[in-house]
Amino acid sequence: MDGGGNTGPIGGLRTEVSGLPESGIVELVNYGREVTARDGRDLIGLWVGEGDQPTPAFIMDALERSLRAGNTFYTYQRGTPRLRQALADYHSRTYGLTFPMERFYITHSGMQAIMLSMQSLIGPGDEVVLPTPIWPNVLSAVQILGGKTVPVPADLGNAGWTVDLDRLMEACGPKTKAIVLNSPCNPTGWMMPREQMIALRDFARMRGLWIVADEVYGRMVFDRHHAPSFLEICEPEDRLLVVNTFSKNWAMTGFRVGWVVAPPSLGQVFENLVQFNTSGVAVFLQDACATAVEDGDAFLARTIDRCRQGRDLVEARLSALPRVRFGRSAGGFYTFFAVDGEADSRALAFRLVDEAGVGLAPGSAFGPGGEEYLRLCFATSTARLSEAMDRLEPVLS
Question: Is the pTM of this model over 0.85?
Answer without folding.
Answer: yes
